[in-house]
Design a protein that fits this description.
This protein has helices at about 20-45, 100-114; strands spanning about 5-10, 15-20, 60-65, 65-70, 85-90, 95-100. The protein has about 110 residues and is α+β, with helices and mostly antiparallel strands. A four-stranded antiparallel beta sheet has the order 3-4-5-6. A two-stranded antiparallel ribbon has the order 1-2. About 15% of the residues are buried.
Length: about 110
């Protein structure tokens, strides 16, 4: 059974916080949809066809012991592997806002779910 703490590896350092399995599954689903949006944008760009259809940004919010928000606009990244997400984690005492690599966040969530 996975631990109750999700660790997200950032560009420099990492952050760990209490996170439920149900919330992790929901986050994984949101990240999968984001990857599909990013792939759609990069496929249109690579094919040289007309301007890609704008994709909706991903805004994921979780409220538990901490508040977690993950935001990504798929229209500004050339490929899914270049994409970064804006990450905000806060509670009553601290607020952390930073960027994280999308592929690393996906790996961290998958590892938590295993």
């Amino acid at each position: 059974m996975p631990g109750t703490h999700l660790t997200l590896n950032l560009v420099e350092g990492s952050v760990s916080f209490s996170f439920s399995l149900e919330a992790a599954r929901e986050l994984k689903s949101n990240l999968d949809q984001l990857m599909n949006s990013l792939k759609a944008v990069s496929a249109k760009t690579a094919s040289g066809s007309s301007k890609p259809t704008p994709q909706s940004p991903m805004e994921y919010r979780y409220t538990g012991e901490v508040f977690l928000e993950i935001f990504c606009n798929p229209n500004i990244w050339p490929t899914p592997f270049a994409a970064k997400v804006l990450l905000t984690i806060r509670d009553l005492n601290i607020r952390l806002t930073t960027e994280a690599e999308l592929t690393r966040v996906i790996e961290d969530v998958n590892q938590y779910l295993e």
